[in-house]
Amino acid sequence: xxxxxxxxxxxxxxxxxxxxxxxxxxxxxxxxxxxxxxxxxxxxxxxxxxxxxxxxxxxxxxxxxxxxxxxxxxxxxxxxxxxxxxxxxxxxxxxxxxxxxxxxxxxxxxxxxxxxxxxxxxxxxxxxxxxxxxxxxxxxxxxxxxxxxxxxxxxxxxxxxxxxxxxxxxxxxxxxxxxxxxxxxxxxxxxxxxxxxxxxxxxxxxxxxxxxxxxxxxxxxxxxxxxxxxxxxxxxxxxxxxxxxxxxxxxxxxxxxxxxxxxxxxxxxxxxxxxxxxxxxxxxxxxxxxxxxxxxxxxxxxxxxxxxxxxxxxxxxxxxxxxxxxxxxxxxxxxxxxxxxxxxxxxxxxxxxxxxxxxxxxxxxxxxxxxxxxxxxxxxxxxxxxxxxxxxxxxxxxxxxxxxxxxxxxxxxxxxxxxxxxx
Length: 423
Prior knowledge:
The chain is 19% helix and 22% strand. The protein is of the alpha/beta class and 423 residues long. A hairpin with a 2-residue loop joins β15 (355-359) and β16 (362-366).
């Protein structure tokens, strides 16, 4: 089954907890705190696998969790890092964060993408020893890993998209100009999934052609099969529009040509501007008058036209040469712009609940919604620190600290950050 869109949840591993421990060794008095740090949680990593062509592996598994980091131990032993979880996807997969509808990755190359970062491990009590606090009896818990609802959408990477009504010869064309082996039959919707074929133009030169399942009028509104696959044309650098010039099924080729282009415009107006070459197929069944009428119509629109008979390869070489020549002048395959989720958005998508506890005169703040904010704060930048201060003020944390009796100069701890309180 061809699956090209799925929704999943990913959860990176939590960081391990820091340990509360004290050095115990014969003949060593007052060894002091030596609790080890917790290990970092595993990341969720997306990786392109060229052997995959659909998202069907995600049909039955929708939740992906990385391993948690291990807790720290005594004698300054740090916990083991949680194992990363690698999720393999086909090339061309676009990853979107669902709640904000932000595209966060376009998996169009071989570079890995970390979709969810594992939580940092908590500090052991050895980090909290000071001249006035020589035996801290507390440590920090590990930070939770990031968690996201994601939509994966496959948008095929092809240089050329083949368009046309069902049964006009798209599958036959791609089968004779490449090594692709699509289903071919004299009936509608023989092709029910997109087919990619590599067209070789000689040593070191080739391009990828996509046979998109047949469109019909109303496809952009959900009629027929084509509406499921129009998105796979969006990345194409150019289009080859195949028309049954003989009108062998009782349709007019000019009306067919206009109908398909109207569907493209309805689906995405930008697609109308894609360069297009028109191929009049089934010339063995057409009269000279039919061929000339359609050719004149196409050329009057300023488009290149080629007459072909795909099964016997008549005219296909000239068509493919023209396609290769046009591709040499066009920009590369489209990539989607990605963006990081800004701190302001991360604040909005979580509730602002928090907990404050006091241990050894340290005011410890626990608020999971703050974690992605802290990860993006630049502590060497004044404006970034001011933003964090505004978040603490607007969320009510500062007021809650004052209710707990905090004084200027007292220590505040937020996960792996400590600072002196200033009113």
